[in-house]
Amino acid sequence: xxxxxxxxxxxxxxxxxATISMVSVHAGENQSLVQVAPDEIARVPGMTADYVRTPHxxxxxxxxxxxxxxxxxxxxxxxxxxxxxxxxxxxxxxPRFLNNGTRIEATAKNTRLPEVYNxxxxxxxxxxxSGTNELTAYMTVPPNxxxxxxxxxxxxxxxxDAQNVVSILQPVLGWDGYGANNWTIASWNCCxxxxxxxxxxxxxxxxxxIYGTMVNTGGQNWTITATDETNTSLASATLKTQGYSQTFDxxxxxxxxxxxxxxxxxxxSSGPIKFTNIQAYVGGKVVSNPSWSxxxxxxxxxxxxxxxxxxxxxxxxxx
Length: 319
Known about the structure:
Signal peptide: 1-27
Radius of gyration: 18 Å
Number of strands: 23
CATH class of the domain at 108-188 and 202-318: Mainly Beta
Order of helices and strands: HEEEEEEEEEEEEEEEEEEEEEEE
Strand order of the largest sheet: 3-14-13-12-11-18-9-21
Largest sheet: 8 strands, mixed
Low-confidence stretches: 1-29
Keywords: Signal
Protein name: Secreted protein
Number of helices: 1
Shape: globular
């Protein structure tokens, strides 16, 4: 069944809830996240048609906040505009759901992922002895999937606090993340107080080299970017955000998360996707040899995928 789209999540100064409507998508425009399909609603008790797919599970559309490149997320959840004024964001009033249907209330505290996690198909990560102040990695955009049938695929590096999980920082490469059967990049921070925050999204093409960065810019201020190094005329996908006093010692070299996948043909037609030149910095110095570990999901579609650690700076996810 074809995906239906929701109207772009444009939040007013009064933080009115996003509205849902049918829209067409054009390259270069800020696109809209994919609304859940009827089979997903039937599978997840409590979820309704007002929910959308994100790299962090299913969220009610009013709990997804878009932040412009000229704006910055503050520690209290307000958003600082370019003119210095703050716009307040209404607190999320709805639960979110993991891909496996697990319900998480908006007021619930985030916790570290279990050793086998049903949301991700593959996760390659390491826990550092100290928090990092910067993580960078390259990804090459894969070919389009052989079968384009409404599935959503997310690939990303990321950062979390292993002991105090409040949020995750991640530059994300997505297939059909915005409902247009194409590849996009966007930067995310999820899920303080049940809300997920996202910056602008940019359409990219197979073969393009994407540079993802998560950089501490002083204090608790972080900037997440995804940049197309092949097509330098494109804007970067940027999110200026807060670290919420976390120590980002849990480093994701590469991860894969999916929605609507029922066959191996729904992955890119060739692979693997390569995460290369992965560099985590502690005190301004590169961590020389992170101890990467592989955590596969227990989903049935995990059988289509495999993660491999090539060396200390390179990992692959094949499908």
